[in-house]
Design goal:
single chain, 925 residues, mainly beta, Immunoglobulin-like
Length: 925
């Protein structure tokens, strides 16, 4: 029939006539299938509004709906598409990619989102697009001017034009589908029965009893239901066509209703239509097959079909050299998903199911005929034959092998290859050609770390080239000592330990006076009950599979009592601190002598003396500054906020002070310890086997390292901890609110770490310092010129660095001048920082007296303490005298004297021959 649209305000006047224009698509429009098959829409019948002109390129559609004279579709990315009549904006679909179902009314559309909410658009004269408050929806339907929503709990909601009660469903539950007609509504219960309500003057609400239904659809004045035996039941009035389906119609999988015509989708993918054909809507296109969804409009029909695959570009024959990579590709059009199966000589190739097939490193055995079979749910097609011809090219029969070489050694690589002569060779390192390396073998002598890398060789002939497998050259460093054994002075009967920390070390051998000590093969060497005969020079040879290095000499002096000290403790920063009750003087004790190590806590400090005893000062509210009675044999110290920790020379640990969080409860496995650290309320001990033992507060995991077994150094901050591993990288654990253990990317070659309240420091092997964490006082702004650093320390918010020349540099918070060392501070051998104060341990300054010519012409050189006190015995083996005849030379180029130095009358003395040219001298401690 001829259709014309009336002005918008006349909709309700001609409503009955307009009802005949509505169409639903039954199950296809009610709910998208769980696993939809994408296809292309095809429409037929009336085309007065171009509703049968499917938009070009619309090939991945998963759901369709037909309105009066327009269509809606959902693409497989969840986006909506509309075309045809747009009288009321019904094809102006909303944006978004989350739609799963769509329905079409007279002049409006409805879509279901994946989250169970609903959108509607177009004509809203009867409120049919008012979807606010709808949720938990799993299916939708659209009538002329009303809509239905099926909720996930099995109930139904209705809205829009409400005449005839079509938007007032009876109390219903347990529903699984809904459909909306002209002025009536349908619902399918889960038990297979159908309920209808609304206008029933044409019998459209008189549901036939006695059958079990699996799907429903509603037209203008009639209804449809699909029985569980694959047959269709109809009731109502079609007003222009035969309503009753043909007797032989069976095997139906889905149904749809137009205004006055019916559609049935058979299980074989074909479509059958009956009823009004005034617009050609029941003239199913010849050959239509592979249909997966249907919908009916006023006088047109819509089907979603799967298009069989068609090859648009065939795989091509190729001729390649052996060892090359070859790829066959095929171009295909058709509905997705498409599956591919490549075949050689007619036999399927396992695992090759993509649109392209690549053969890497082609060999003669790969030659042959290749085809590909492309399949989708609509059929399959086989490509033409593509022939692969393989030409002979070089082939490597023996690959070069990687090797491990120590610095200074020789590395050799070789390759064996076959192929047509002559063969040419080009060796590469990390992808770059090596000059003159053009033989089948490559030898590198005097290997250095810069030679490490990935080595390959490219073998070529007239037919092509082949690259060998990677042969990795790993250049191993000799061991690097990061903590040298220290000279010590002890009383007879004391226990004394020498320790060394080294990177890349696997073996240790301690020596006394140049001779190996039997059984002394660990990083820690302990002498229990030292006697006068144990005095001497000790060193350790640290080795690995590729060489060894020797530590500095540590002199053990055994005395009958505490000897004199060559060290002084220097303090700066806050000197009077508040402990919550009173002010406490934290100035170092007067007359403090024989000190070999220092530590700073929050309100107290510790000093380790050369005889293995410990002295404390500052706040002692919890006994933290008062070592246990009789404590001796101590080799290292650490201070927390209110507690103290020491390591004894036998590798055991003792702690004292405040214990409210068990920070002084040393665990039984804290044995064979080589380093200790104290945080605010937790403590750490590093064992010689690389494991870390922690105790005390653990609210942020600060005492529980994550499975560390190769620790080399440790540090403890406020509520976090750091560790240096044997590969010279750093790990952290505990609180990380300021990134205090978020290790900078690429940080390596680290030999020591220090931890403040919320910031961290790392000392690298090259003497540079890296800092990270909280920076509110510039504590992570390492001075740009800082270099040649030997040790680091961190206070609450400030930092110290001990340089190799014995000077100290500081940065960070300076409210008490804690980062500004005293003027002319030099000769420093150790530093410590805590809270807002700093300590340094320095040697007394030596002065070189004017050289004296002795009888016979010899030159006597004498050195004494600058303060006039006698030179201490422990300096005898630490002082070097350097000489030159040219004052313009840098000090580093002066020659060190090898003459013996003796301690005579409180002075250090040595002599030189008298026949030397005029020389200048300096001392270095």
């Amino acid at each position: 029939m001829t259709v014309s649209f009336l002005p918008r305000q006349s909709h309700f006047v001609f409503r009955f006539w307009c009802i005949s224009l509505i169409a639903l698509f039954a199950l296809a429009a009610i709910k998208a299938p769980a696993a939809p098959t994408p296809g292309s829409p095809l429409a037929w019948g009336d085309n007065s509004f171009l509703q049968t002109n499917t938009p070009p390129g619309l090939t991945s559609v998963v759901a369709i709906a037909a309105g009066s004279y327009f269509n809606l579709a959902i693409q497989n990315d969840g986006r909506l598409v509309g075309w045809g009549n747009n009288f009321a904006g019904q094809t102006n679909v909303p944006a978004g990619t989350n739609y799963v179902a769509v329905a079409a009314g007279e002049f409006h559309g409805v879509a279901l989102r994946r989250n169970g909410t609903v959108s509607a658009w177009g004509d809203n004269l009867a409120g049919q697009t008012n979807t606010a408050g709808l949720s938990s929806v799993k299916a939708i339907a659209a009538g002329t001017y009303h809509n239905l929503a099926l909720h996930s709990n099995g109930t139904v909601s209705a809205w829009g034009e409400s005449t005839f009660g079509k938007t007032t469903p009876p109390p219903l539950a347990g529903l699984r589908a809904v459909a909306a007609g002209g002025n009536h509504s349908l619902a399918l219960r889960s038990n297979g029965t159908v309920v209808a309500w609304g206008l029933g003057t044409s019998g459209q609400t008189n549901v036939p009893a006695g059958a079990i239904y699996t799907a429903i659809a509603a037209g203008s004045d009639f209804s449809m239901a699909l029985r569980n035996d694959g047959r269709v039941t109809t009731w109502g009035n079609m007003h222009g066509g035969v309503l009753v389906p043909p007797p032989g119609l069976a095997g139906v999988a889905a149904i749809a209703a137009g205004a006055a015509h019916c559609l049935a989708l058979r299980s074989n993918g074909t479509v059958f239509c009956w009823g009004d054909n005034s617009g050609g809507q029941t003239n199913v296109p010849a050959g239509l097959a592979h249909v997966v969804a249907i919908a009916g409009g006023a006088q047109h029909s819509l089907a979603l079909r799967v298009i069989p695959p068609v090859i648009t570009s065939q795989p091509q024959s190729q001729s390649v050299a052996a060892g090359s990579d070859v790829t066959f590709t095929v171009g295909v059009s058709g509905s997705v998903p498409l599956s591919y199966r490549w075949r050689k000589q007619g036999t399927a190739i396992p695992g090759e199911t993509n649109s392209s097939y690549t053969i890497s490193d082609v060999q003669p055995s790969h030659a042959g005929n290749y085809t590909v079979v492309i399949t989708n749910s609509a059929g399959s097609v086989t490509s033409v034959v593509a022939t692969l011809t393989v030409n002979l090219r070089p082939a490597i029969t023996v690959q070069p092998e990687g090797t491990n070489v120590g610095v200074g050694g020789t590395a050799s690589f070789s390759v064996q290859a076959t192929g047509t002569a002559p063969l040419r060779y080009r060796w590469r390192r990390d992808g770059m050609n090596i000059f003159s390396a053009t033989n089948a073998s490559l030898s590198i002598s005097n290997v250095q770390s810069t030679n490490a890398g990935n080595y390959t060789v490219v073998v070529t002939n007239a037919y092509g080239a082949v690259t060998s497998a990677v042969a990795m050259l790993i250049v191993h460093n000799l061991p690097t000592i990061i903590t040298q054994p220290q000279s010590q002075t002890v009383i007879v009967g004391s226990s004394v330990s020498f320790s060394v920390s080294a990177i890349d070390a696997t073996t240790y051998q301690w020596r006394k006076n140049g001779a190996d000590i039997p059984g002394a093969t660990n990083s820690l060497y302990t002498i229990n009950g030292a006697q006068m005969g144990d005095a001497g020079s000790y060193l350790v040879v640290v080795g690995n599979n590729y060489g060894s290095v020797t530590s500095v000499t540590a002199v053990l002096t055994v005395t009958t009592g505490a000897g004199p000290s060559s060290t002084l403790v220097v303090a700066w920063g806050e000197s009077n601190v508040w402990n919550g009750i009173t002010n406490v003087d934290v100035t170092p004790l007067a007359g403090l002598s024989n000190v070999v190590a220092i530590a700073v806590g929050r309100l107290h400090s510790l000093a380790l003396k050369g005889d293995g005893t410990v002295v404390g000062w500052g706040d002692n509210t919890y006994g933290q500054a008062a070592p246990p009675a009789g404590l001796s044999g101590v080799s290292s110290i650490a201070a927390g906020w209110y507690h103290s920790v020491v390591r004894k020379s036998d590798g055991t640990v003792i702690a004292w002070g405040r214990n409210n969080l068990e920070q002084t409860n040393v665990p039984p496995d804290a044995t064979n310890v080589m380093a200790i650290a104290a945080g605010a309320y937790h403590s750490l001990a590093l064992r010689t086997d690389g494991r870390i033992v922690g105790w005390g507060l653990n609210n942020f995991g600060q005492r529980a390292p994550p499975g560390i077994t190769s620790g080399m150094a440790i540090a403890a901050g406020l509520d976090f901890s750091l560790a240096v591993l044997s590969n010279s990288t750093v790990v952290g654990f505990g609180i990380n609110d300021f990134g205090q253990w978020r290790i900078p990317t690429g940080l390596s070659n680290v030999i020591a770490v220090a931890a403040g309240d919320y910031h961290s420091l790392a000392l690298k092997r090259d003497g540079t310092v890296i800092a990270w964490g909280r920076n509110d006082h510039q504590q992570t702004n390492v001075p740009a010129t800082l270099s040649n650093v030997a040790a680091i320390a961190a206070g609450a918010n400030h930092c110290l660095a001990l340089k190799r020349d014995g000077t100290v540099e500081g940065w960070g918070q300076d409210n008490f001048f804690q980062n500004v060392p005293p003027q002319d501070l030099a000769g420093v051998i150790a530093i410590a920082a805590g809270g807002d104060r700093s300590l340094a341990l320095k040697r007394k300054l030596l002065r070189l007296l004017a050289p004296q010519r002795q009888p016979g012409g010899r030159i006597r050189l004498r050195m004494g303490n600058a303060d006039g006190s006698p030179v201490e015995a422990d300096r005898l083996n630490t002082v070097g005298i350097y000489a030159t005849t040219n004052l313009a030379l840098n000090v580093s180029l002066w020659n060190r004297l090898t003459n013996s130095i003796a301690l005579i009358g409180g002075m250090l003395e040595t002599e030189e021959p008298g026949d030397l040219p005029r020389r200048f001298y300096i001392t270095v401690d």
